[in-house]
Amino acid sequence: MTKSVYFECYPCLLRQTLDAVGYLDLDETSTKKIINEILLSLIDIDDELTSSEIAALMHHKIARDSGGKDPYLSAKRYSLEKAFELFDYARRIVQDSHDPLETALKVCAAGNIIDFGPSSDFDLKSAVEHVLKTQFIPFDYNAFKKALDKAQNILFLADNAGETVFDRLLIEQIEKPLIYVVKQAAIMNDALYIDAQNTGFPDYVKIMDNGTAIQGTVLKHCSPEFLEKFHQADLIISKGMANFETLPDEGLRSFFLLKIKCNPIARLSGIPYESFVLKQGGLLFNRI
User: Is the CATH number of domain 73-280 3.20.20.70?
Assistant: First the structure.
């Protein structure tokens, strides 16, 4: 079985806490109380939980102790605004390329830098320009095209809110009915139904949530309605590192599109840190 949490995860989880509390602009007493309680909770954390589940517990506690506020609401709006500012530019790049599907995959991956988890700084235009010159490690494009040609039931697992705009560029090239899956309730800056609805997807896209407020796709917590569609899918497009981490066993029907943003995942997958990736499922991680 793959180990879920490494010692490097703890400073990342703490930084997420500091970021979330900082976005809320609470008074010093409330801020200190929340941070101290989360530090104490990390001491006795259940070893069987994944990093996504631990992060969800932390962020749900922060929201509860702050009166139900969403710390990332403004940040999500900002990331969506920045993505929409670049949409026409990125779309022209896709449409003018020699292989629009391949280019759309790469531009879609560039959107994965919009992340208030492992990194809170991003420059979308630079990311788009950089990713088009970068070698993906790996880039399972031929396998993706073959799977797409045969696919009858496509599931697209969303990641961050701002990425929905870049996902639209890929979906416009796919040109097949698909289900676009978001989170049921707020967790960091992950996409919700309203974010996807406001993106302006083609009419052949159906939006649904997976029944959770947990990063990635932790199947044991997902709704029966989502699980039915998940098990029916013959092609799953998974955006982002959390989906990559939480769905290691979905086989050749799954394709992961992301940037590797943390060293534990780089070590587990054997993919260099900060690489952009289009990887077909199979053996994702080294088993320890």
Answer: no
